[in-house]
Amino acid sequence: MIKRIAVLTTGGDAPGMNPAIRAVVRYGLANKIEVMGVFRGWWGLINEELKVLEHRSVSGIISQGGTILKTARCPEFETKEGQERAFNTVKKFAIDGLVVIGGNGSFTAAHLFGAKYNVPCVGIAASIDNDINGIDYTIGADTAINTALAAIDNIRDTATSMERIFVVEVMGRKCGFIALAVALAGGCEEVFIPEKPFDLEEACHNIVHGNLAGKISWIIVVAEGAGHAEDIAKKITEMTSLETRSVTLGHIQRGGRPTAFSRDIALNLGKAAVDCLLKGEKDKAFGIVNGHVASVDFATAIKKKEFNLEGIYSLIKTLT
Ligand code: F6P
């Protein structure tokens, strides 16, 4: 019998975490469960930083990026001592289940903690990188892509006007999803991602040939895990003698008002996570699969994501 659950946000924040918190709190209350909010992710569980959230605790947050619960990356939770302290908090506050809103690292921790201490944990997939295996869409990815795309559209205006080559760095240390999505939607000429080796000489060869044929501007998107915009821009100038500029979009991609899509999936996933605990299920992450709310076991979710990057990549190249 579930009487009290706790919700936490961990790892990198993603726009839409707040609507997810709102859904967990209000759907929990509608089902006569008390919901506690844990501050700063696992750190808050270790250090007893948590409080009961009321209906009105989550008023007005639906349109806000970030997370009202704060978030952190918490190496202390990888230690035995950290985990024991977190479990003591779970016992002390009679928490019957945890809703963990986050990405890969968060689910890895929840999977281990849940099994070791027999604490029911469910996940809500939230990551701008959209890198959860078995899940098509995570909370925040759509917002981040649209933020990056708005910047790229602006850059295209100046790139075209001044006839320049721009290298634009987007987030994604291990995953090129944002880079591919914005390169396609932004009509960019080239994209470099961590999952695929790239050939700068070939790109420069194409630029020089295009330039001789009258092409005046390029936008090259690079995911941060594939290289840095500034270095790549310098190399392109060295190899082509053409003027380049570089822009690093950085953390602006993590903030901002969640899009309707990021909010809607967050609200649905929040409900699904609470339902899962109510049914006595655990150890799974919820996300959008084939357009619907679905879950995958944590063990699957934390594996390296398989996605059809070749399909998007070749479409970008074909349409250039
Ligand atoms: O949350 C994912 C992410 O934004 C990655 O795309 C990026 O590489 C990383 O987090 C940056 O992390 P931090 O904000 O800790 O520097």
Q: Short description, anyone?
A:
It is built from eleven helices and eleven strands. The protein is of the alpha/beta class and 320 residues long.
Description of the structure:
The protein has 320 residues and is α/β, with parallel strands linked by helices. It folds into two domains: 4-140 and 258-301, Rossmann fold; 142-255, Rossmann fold (3-Layer(aba) Sandwich), CATH 3.40.50. Helix content is 42%, strand content 18%. It contains eleven helices and eleven strands. The strands form two sheets. Strands 3-2-1-4-5-10-11 form a seven-stranded mixed sheet, sandwiched between helices. Strands 7-8-6-9 form a four-stranded parallel sheet, with helices on both faces. Helix 1 (17-30) packs parallel to helix 9, helix 5 (141-162) crosses helix 6 and helix 7 crosses helix 8 (229-240). The longest helix has 22 residues, at 141-162. It is elongated. The model has no long low-confidence stretch (mean pLDDT 97). It binds 6-O-phosphono-beta-D-fructofuranose.
